[in-house]
Amino acid sequence: MYSVNQRFDNQYIPEQELLTSGNLACAGCGASLSMRLALKALGKPTVLAVPACCWTIIPGAFPRSIMEVPFFNCAFETTAATISGIKAAFRRRGMGEICVVGWAGDGGTLDIGIQALSGAAERNEDVVYICYDNEAYMNTGIQRSSATPRGSWTTTTPVKNPKSEPKKDIDEIMIAHKIPYLATATAAYPHDMIAKLKKARTIKGTRFIHLFSSCPTGWRMPENLSIEVMRLAVLTNLFPLYEVEHAEVYRQTVVPEEIKPVEEYIRLQGRFRHLTEEDLRELQSMVDKRFASLKEKFEKSEALK
Questions:
Q1: pLDDT of 217-248, one tens digit each?
Q2: Which among 76, 150, 85 has a CA at the least distance from the CA of 108?
Q3: Which of the chain's ends, N or C, has fewer CB atoms near its CB within 10 Å?
Q4: SS3 content of the chain, % helix, strand, coil (to 5)
């Protein structure tokens, strides 16, 4: 079905669990599984800062928590500023080895938090920023974000007026900041995700991880399709898995042996049920065009080896 860069395929998934039982996530929540895998990869010592999002609810109500690492709640727009400050405080105390991580949704990253994120990236703060992207403001009622794909239903882009704008390309925005490391990942390919987060932990400077995270509730699909849909996003080239080092070297880490049509991904989700055949052709064309541009960068980087 796909081939994986050998460096990533050999990665094992650590047994250590830094989440306890009893989380409050919806059934099939991609964000819950993503956090579990992310903490397995990052290990201790790690500190998290999380703004308003599903993950302010999932750990449970104070004073109880499922988290086995320090967990700070911060304002919606301040994730990158908060982790910058936490990292500076640790350095001042001689504790610079602690991995400081911002964990925010697409709304808190691409929209409300992009000003602080841009500032942190411009300063090349020594932090890991992880955006778990479920393509809408799911925690507050499934409202449209700038990560919502064109044609998608949300409560603020109803079927008669679905989102007409394309998804914001946050990856190229971050690459334009010349950060040392960026990667896309998804829990549907756990070895790839684990390897990228382990690698990110060893790098100094701003590291940005873009996680594609299914939301059965907001995507209007059965919870048992969560992994399959995330995997199809990769196999259709809708969400290719790759990494970029120093804003120059692009490397595809999971290469589908056979590219599947975008329709296979779309038809499993109720949020796209209203799309016509013409709409599907337009979406396929958009995906093909974007991937063709990425492929040129993969090939150019490979030729420079």
A1: 999 999 999 999 999 999 999 999 999 999 99
A2: 76
A3: C
A4: 40, 20, 40
Alpha helices in 224-266 (DSSP H): 226-235, 262-266
Number of CB atoms found within 10 A of residue 116's CB? 25
| CA–CA separation, 204 and 118 (whole Å) | 17
Please name each of the domains of the chain with its CATH number: 2-303 (3.40.50.970)
- 149 closest CA partner among 118, 106, 192, 189: 106
CA distance 19 to 59: 9
The average pLDDT across 145-174 equals 97
DSSP letters, 176-216, are TTT-SEEEEEETTSHHHHHHHHHHHHHS-S-EEEEEE---H
pLDDT at 8 over 70: no
Helix (H, G, I), strand (E, B) or coil at 229: helix
Q: Measured between alpha carbons, how far is 210 from 230 in angstroms, rounded to an integer?
A: 13
The pLDDT assigned to 5 comes to 52
Band the pLDDT of 21: cuts 50, 70, 90.
Answer: confident
42, pLDDT greater than 90: yes
DSSP-derived secondary structure for 92-132: HTT-TTSEEEEEEEHIIIIITTHHHHHHHHHHT-S-EEEEE
The CA distance from 123 to 175, in Å, is 14
Helix 30-42 vs helix 190-202: crossing angle, to nearest 10: 50
DSSP conformation class of 40? H
